[in-house]
């Protein structure tokens, strides 16, 4: 069988398998016309592992069938896709079309809401529709489909116009995340080649010497920059954007992986660099027998206080949850933690700075303290990774040839995220081998890896060396 035939067979067999499993649950697998809803979203999440090799084979089939020049040009132009998504979100297009209903709305009326040039907006929406985001039902008339509906806040458009900075409050964070990612891509990506080839900056590990700083003409880190008063909208957006993956699988992150439920009553969990506390909020809903401290920068803690008072004020009032301003590059003030959790923290920092964070936690740890690093793990794109397999959870099943070895990695966005992090702050996603060395250098031993299906991050459970 040729490689081309094998790819086609993987797609055909995979689709049949997905359809059969959907039928067993009496829920048809959603199409672009299927409205978003908890049941259909849960089905897609539950069948993500089955879908991954099908999607990977489809991408590989495209790469095989297209002329190399056409394929490369398609990818090169994809940078404009993120910018177009940012425009659609900033112009409130998904919610405008949600209110318009299934008949859709003429681009003149869509553009009038935010006083955008209708001709330019129409071209952007048509580009997005060519990538199956929105649908053009008649010339210049657009409506939402399943994918674009995921960008909706669900709020009345008039309310959003009255208070733009609050438009993501109370949402699942997806719209905020897409908006933030689009902006980061545009700001850093354009300067990446020049920045990396500059001997003065190309080897830097400093968080304020990345391509993003060159583009923005600032020496501030992105975190310092967003705390300036004139960037209050971005700071609000960042805090809510970090909620997207938590809300998508709140039950999974709180009940699977590390054994939170087995911790003795009153055990202290410290969410280091925990932002506004989205992860702790998921844990606290499921594990009321524990105590929690959420640590982050003082400006972020203020945002978090508003979130907790609006959603779970009783836990704050009873001191079950405390929000604490703390610089994790300084000495860790809590010396009696049962668990230190770092969720999406290590990928924000180069090795030089990630080592400082981990070392301060090691200095504050008791012999029984556990460290749970929650982050994405980049898979090698070869079949022999050479990573230690004696660590439980380290080994990962491989996809059959001719697919790349890890189908979920080949179809996911974590490699794109890796380059985004490089552009914004000289930081990165890491392979498992890289994590093992980083942790060891800071005094931690990786005990096991708790695996989750993408897009959820993995959990690395560590103990003091």
UniProtKB/TrEMBL annotation:
O-methyltransferase dimerisation domain mapped to chain residues: 74-153
Molecular-function annotations in GO: O-methyltransferase activity; protein dimerization activity
Any one Pfam family match given in the protein's UniProt record, by short name: Methyltransf_2
Signal peptide (UniProt feature, chain positions): none
One example of a Gene Ontology biological process annotation: methylation
Chain ranges of the O-methyltransferase C-terminal domain: 266-381
Keywords: Methyltransferase, S-adenosyl-L-methionine, Transferase
InterPro entries, sorted: COMT-like (IPR016461), COMT_C (IPR001077), COMT_dimerisation (IPR012967), SAM-dependent_MTases_sf (IPR029063), WH-like_DNA-bd_sf (IPR036388), WH_DNA-bd_sf (IPR036390)
Methyltransferase found in the keyword field: yes
Name of protein: Uncharacterized protein
UniProt source species: Phanerochaete carnosa (strain HHB-10118-sp) (White-rot fungus)
């Amino acid at each position: 069988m040729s490689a081309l035939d094998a790819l086609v067979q993987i797609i055909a067999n995979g689709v049949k398998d997905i359809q059969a499993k959907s039928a067993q649950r009496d829920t048809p697998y959603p199409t672009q016309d299927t409205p978003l809803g908890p049941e259909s979203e849960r089905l897609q999440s539950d069948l993500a592992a089955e879908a991954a090799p099908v999607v990977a084979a489809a991408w590989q089939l495209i790469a095989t069938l297209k002329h190399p020049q056409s394929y490369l040009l398609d990818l090169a132009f994809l940078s404009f896709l993120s910018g177009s998504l940012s425009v659609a979100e900033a112009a409130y297009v998904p919610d405008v079309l949600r209110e318009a209903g299934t008949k859709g709305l003429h681009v003149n009326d869509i553009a009038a809401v935010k006083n955008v040039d209708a001709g330019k907006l129409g071209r952007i929406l048509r580009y997005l529709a060519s990538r199956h985001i929105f649908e053009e039902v008649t010339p210049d008339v657009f409506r939402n489909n399943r994918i674009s509906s995921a960008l909706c806040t669900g709020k009345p458009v008039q309310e959003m116009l009255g208070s733009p900075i609050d438009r993501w409050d109370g949402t699942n964070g997806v719209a905020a995340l897409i908006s933030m990612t689009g902006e980061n891509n545009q700001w850093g990506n354009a300067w990446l080649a020049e920045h990396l080839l500059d001997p003065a900056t190309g080897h830097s590990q400093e968080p304020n010497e990345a391509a993003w700083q060159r583009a923005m003409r600032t020496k501030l880190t992105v975190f310092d920059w967003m705390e300036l008063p004139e960037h209050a909208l971005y700071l609000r957006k960042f805090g809510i954007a970090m909620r997207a993956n938590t809300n998508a699988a709140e039950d999974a992150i709180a009940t699977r992986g590390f054994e939170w439920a087995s911790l003795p009553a009153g055990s202290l969990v410290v969410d280091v660099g925990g932002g506004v506390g989205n992860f702790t909020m998921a844990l606290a809903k499921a594990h009321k027998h524990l105590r929690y401290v959420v640590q982050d920068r003082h400006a972020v803690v203020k945002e978090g206080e508003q979130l907790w008072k609006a959603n779970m004020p009783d836990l704050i009032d009873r001191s079950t949850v405390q929000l604490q301003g703390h610089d994790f590059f300084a000495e860790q003030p809590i010396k009696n933690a049962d668990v230190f959790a770092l969720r999406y923290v290590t990928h924000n920092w180069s090795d030089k700075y990630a080592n400082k964070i981990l070392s301060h936690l090691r200095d504050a740890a008791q012999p029984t303290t556990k460290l749970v690093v929650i982050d994405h793990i980049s898979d090698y794109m070869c079949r022999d990774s050479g990573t230690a397999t004696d660590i439980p959870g380290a080994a990962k099943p491989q996809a059959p040839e001719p697919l790349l070895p890890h189908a979920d990695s080949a179809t996911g966005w974590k490699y794109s995220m890796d380059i985004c992090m490089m552009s914004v702050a000289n930081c990165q996603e890491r392979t498992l081998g890289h994590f093992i060395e980083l942790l060891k250098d800071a005094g931690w031993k990786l005990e096991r890896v708790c695996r989750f299906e993408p897009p959820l991050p993995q959990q690395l459970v560590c103990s003091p060396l």
